[in-house]
Structure formats: structure tokens, C-alpha cells
Amino acid sequence: MKLPHRRQFLHLVAGAAALPAISRIAGAQSRPTRPITIIVPYAPGGAGDLAVRVLSEPLAATLGQNVIIENVSGGSALIGTGRVARAAPDGYTLLGHNMALAANVSLFPKATFNVEKDLIAVGLVNYGVPILVGRKSLAANSLDELVAWMKQPGRHIKFAHGGVGSMSYFCAVLFARAVGADIDLIPYRGGGAPALTDLLAGHVDLYCTNLAGELLKASRLKGFGVASKDRFAPYPNLPSLVQSGFADMDILFWQGIFAPAATPKLVLEKLNAALRLALADPKVIRNFEQTDFSVFPEREQTITAANSFLHQEIVRWGQVVRTNHIEAEQ
Considering just the CA atoms, what is the radius of gyration of the chain in Å? Predict the structure, then answer.
């Protein structure tokens, strides 16, 4: 999966000539009359939770109402997602989700909702590259040494993840299968802070995350590679897992905002306009950059582009699930 250049993103977003038109759309229609709730189907502290909280203030300023963040975790994100899928399609209940929304379509075919029939994308938010990190006391110091360590007979490997279907889950499963090692999958609701805390304490061995940047720079964790086709500019010394021979380890961690599918077009356009203004806010861009995330370019921030992207991701992760015979408990 080819990632757009980071500076190109900032140029397209910050300098977009279409922003005045977006501003007119956001202000032309009647404003919401009560607070808007964005449900995050994960526990606080994860990447999805943090991204939505960064957006809440500029969204509230544009829409003229408070934006409330509600964490509804559990059930591999199905509980919170289902709540939005069944919500009134009036624009007051939204969903902040990520690549797991697409992956769960194939992992949980018996879910009580249909992602493409019951939800519609308001817009894409940002993307990041997962980093494979390990506890500081781990014997391995390079990717090759890690692979050798994992292959040792009788090795008991504890691999943290944020729940079945999450980016960190797929990263763990695909990497272990490529290495040919058995692992114990240790789930954390939403991953994020709880998983990193246990990794720092040495209770688990490995974790794929977008939130370990400062810990890597402080040498409190070990970095072994980035789950992408190319090296990641902020960490040039970390190898690309794909370039290192792990072909399936091209994992783009993306995030977006979604609404019930029957939400009126004018309401969706208003929400999308407010979101795009928020994503052009220099404070939002800087905040995302501090955690190694980039906003999607303006041309990919439209409602149409976001829903097309969601469909492509559903197809892609469906192929990954079937090819690797990945199953989740129903």
C-alpha cells in the first residue's frame, strides 16, 4: 500500500483552495440544536480515542454544539459500532472507528449489523504506520535476532493486541505466521495505554502500535520494524517488514468518522465540511504529527472518497482473513 508523502499531505490540507467553500457549507445550513456524541468503540487512551478528542474542539466550534466523546468498548468493537448502526440517522450520534471496521466484516459475519448497509462514512481522518516494538529486556536487538529468538524451541511469546480485528491483532497474527512461531495473544481493550504499560513492565514481549514514538526515542522500548512497504521517515533506522521478506506486513492504520446510513445528505455534507475544516487546523495537524499520524489529503476527505476507501479496505482485509484462515470466536 503506497503512502502519500507527508509534506504533500500538509501542503494539500493546509493550503487547500477549497476551504472557503467548505466554510460556507458549514455555516449555510442550520446548526445542530443539541450536543453531538461520537462513540469510540474502544477504551480511553488508544489511537482512535485520542484522534477523536483532538477533533472535538474544532468540530464543536464549527457546529456550534459540544461534541461529546463516549467510549463503548467490548466485543471486538462490535458493541459500540452496533449502537451507532442502530442510532437515529439525524447526525447526533457518530462513530469514530478505524481499519478494524473493515476487517470485522469478514471476521464477524454474524454481526447484528452490516457495515456497508447500516453505516456511511462522514470522512477519513488520519493514518499511521504500525511499529513492531518489544520490551526493553528482550534478548533480541534487531529484526533478524527477534526472528531467531521467536523460533527457539519452547519459547513462550506473549504478544499484546487491542482486540480481535484490531490493527495490532492482525500485525501479531500475520507476523507470527510469517515467522513460523507460536504466540500467546494477550488482549487489551483498545490496546493503547494498558498494553504499553504492561510492555514497559515486561509482562508481555511484543506489541504493534502507533503510540510508542516517545518511548522508542527514550530507549524504553525496542523497535524491530515498521509494518509497511517502505521505511518510515520518523524512524529511519527501523527496517520495513515488507522489504525484510514479510510480504503481508503492509498494514495502514487509518481512522475515520461514520454515521448511520440513512443520515440525510445535507447533514452528512455539513458534518463532512466541519471535519475538513478541523483537519486543516494547524493545531490538529501538529497534534497528529506528535504521535506520528498524518491527515489524509484533501482530495480523499470527501464523503464519496471515504466510502470508496472503506469498500476497498473491506475487500482487502476479507482477502487477508480468508487467505490466512483467520477466525474469530462468534
Answer: 19
Would you say 38 and 257 are in contact if contact means Cβ atoms under 8 Å apart?
Answer: yes
Type and span of the H or E element at 119? strand 119-128
**Per-residue pLDDT reduced to its tens digit, 119-131:** 999 999 999 999 9
Closest CA to 62 of 271, 264, 256, 258: 271
Q: In angstroms, rounded to a whole number, what is the distance separating the alpha carbons of residues 171 and 169?
A: 5
In the DSSP assignment, the letter for residue 240 is B
Pull the grid cell for residue 272: 463532512
Closest CA to 49 of 40, 38, 61: 40
Q: Tell me: the pLDDT tens digits for 155-184?
A: 999 999 988 888 999 999 999 999 999 999
Q: How far apart are CA 76 and CA 148, in angstroms?
A: 32
Output DSSP code: residue 154.
T
Q: What domain range is 111 assigned to?
A: 6-128+253-323
- Residue with grid cell 468540530, as numbered in its chain: 59
The dihedrals phi and psi of 31, each to the nearest 5 degrees, come to -80, 160
Domain check: are 182 and 118 in the same one? no
**For 141, what's the count of Cα atoms within 13 Å in the CB-facing half-sphere?**
1
* Same domain for 136 and 122: no
Neighbours of 144 (CB within 10 A): 12
